[in-house]
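User: Hey, quick favor. My workstation is busy. Could you predict this chain's structure for me?
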Amino acid sequence: MSDERPILLFDSGVGGLSVLAPTRALLPQASYVYVADNGGFPYGIRSEAEIAARVPALLGRLVERYRPRLVTIACNTASTIALAAVRSALDLPVVGTVPAIKPAAEQSLTRAFGVLGTDATVRQPYVDDLSARFASDCLVLRHGSAKLVQLAEAKLRGEPTDPADFRAVLSGLLDQPGGDRIDTVVLACTHFPLVADELAAAAPRPLRFVDGGPGIARRVAHLTGGQAWPDTPSGKAVFTAPIEPSTALRSTLADRGLDHISIL
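Assistant: No problem, here it is.
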């Protein structure tokens, strides 16, 4: 029997598209609702209290409207601050996004890696906990960048970006004491894999970039294993505030199976 319930992915902007891509690769038979909270964007410079209040309330409305089978919070900042509250409020599986510190520790040969995220993410105790659990023998340096979020959004709108901006972001991480040892960088914001090529081109030496997208996709596939799927999968992008998507953004959304755009 057909099951029309979609998988709902939620982010402050377009960053969660880096999670949608590997999820669709594993589950092409699913329908998707991708929600960009452009009305609250950017999360990285908001206070923990603002995010903790906004995200559960907004996801409650979204679940009521779209009746998904599962919610993925495809946003590191929202996950590190509001995941527990969302899970307690919703009666369905909720998959969060956490910095890929464990795989970075497994892959780093120099035992030194960086965590590049938003200011709100890199200061969370959750990052301390992950580092203590999975990278106790590593030097873990952090850098928060709101600018890189803006650069990723600009790229997907089809706007030009300046390589010097990417060099400056990396300098904030690599120029710290011990930064010369870093061989791996955790992209601890779902926006950042969207500009991984630009970061690699701006890096002063070869670096390995890792993110949580593939692991999240595997978790979603596991939690939906054995379920029925719609006869005709669909994809919808939802924005929480009025927006005039550029031609480039419309094309990006369509390339990821999001053929319909609506406002919440």
